[in-house]
Amino acid sequence: MNFPAFRHGNNSGLDFAVHFCNFCLNRKKKSIMTLSEPEQSFILHWGEMGSRWGVNRSVAQIHALLYLAGKPITAEEIAETLSIARSNVSNSLRELQGWRLIETTSVLGDRRDHFIAIADGMEMAKRIVEGRRQREFLPTLSALEGMVKAAKADKATSRESANRMASTLALMEQADSWYREMNALSPKVQSGLLRMGARIAKLLPTSDKG
Amino acid sequence: MNFPAFRHGNNSGLDFAVHFCNFCLNRKKKSIMTLSEPEQSFILHWGEMGSRWGVNRSVAQIHALLYLAGKPITAEEIAETLSIARSNVSNSLRELQGWRLIETTSVLGDRRDHFIAIADGMEMAKRIVEGRRQREFLPTLSALEGMVKAAKADKATSRESANRMASTLALMEQADSWYREMNALSPKVQSGLLRMGARIAKLLPTSDKG
DNA sequence: CAGTTGTTTCAGTATGGACAGAAATATAAG
DNA sequence: CTTATATTTCTGTCCATACTGAAACAACTG
Predict the structure, then answer these.
(1) Using the CB atom, is residue A26 less than 7 Å from strand C?
(2) A184, B198: Cβ pair inside 8 Å?
(3) pLDDT digits (tens, 9 = 90+) for A73-103
């Protein structure tokens, strides 16, 4: 540890630029989060759950940590707290940004990025769903479209087979359309519908012809 | 190939038991399905999709094959058609039965099980969702319950942290309750709601307080 | 009961993805 | 420009899981 020729109080009257000596920065760098036992199991289970749903463990754990922390923390802190490699943290953070589940913030006098998870659980869920839709659902949908077209044209494919593909496609398209419409509603209405549950069915015209 | 002392037509007048000579059975055994090109890509993509969603490739492929076939086929046929090991097929079939996505049927004069996928796409989707709920969602839910309790009791856990866990739990419980209610509705009403999409929101009391 | 056919279990192998650590690159400060 | 610091890319290792093929097991037939 070396302390350069910086001294507190010599910032020559600048109004906005705030500097810290390396000693302060170093002290800041050392702050590892200590996790309580329940917090640890939350993070562990979150990671476990993630890996069952096609999100890798580190990504899910980091997300859980940021979510629990509720305040901006640095990549390094994350790495030390969870004991995972700095590079892994870096990649995972980038992925989480890709899912729009975390954001970066700046802290005065610190060059490092500080990361924070979006706090609203509902919003979180929506972004995860939207992410999976974009990455997996939509590509499959368009692939299926192609296949159905090909199946109908191909005379080696039985009519029944082609029909089954087509109805699968139709079902998926309907589900997607339902999702898009629901997604477009205001959060207020969305949570209203959620809270309402099956009681909504009572509002349907009694002789439901669809 | 050896042909035992069985001859056509010597079934001694039994009404219901129908026998086939081994020659016939052997001929039956050889029938491998030939898949058209669109069918192949359907199966391949289905497998790909499965593996992205935590279902292993073989299981998903076999399911796709049975779904396309639309008629009962044997484990052996599946193995030969998809070129995967017989044992793998056996295990995968068992898993598919666990998900209630396929059923077994018997064919007269054939000891082997014949498998067929449920045909209704909507029903299929519902069973998949229910399966994942049972296997992954509910366990997580109860684990979370324990953690929230522990977090509230534990004084090393910050109030904010405990609250965040609690609200996550609450959201998941609400989602589950919504699902259960929707699931209990009749298929008719369900598809009515699906087709209706966001127009359902118009039926809500205008000043929606929830 | 012996022989045949079908199914499951088991143990070893292979493959894909996660991960660590090092090296390379970028950015800022003096 | 040099040095310090932050981040990303890259490469090899490790691990989990899927998968195969063989062997054990079970069920049925004559």
Answers:
(1) no
(2) yes
(3) 999 999 999 999 999 999 999 999 999 999 9
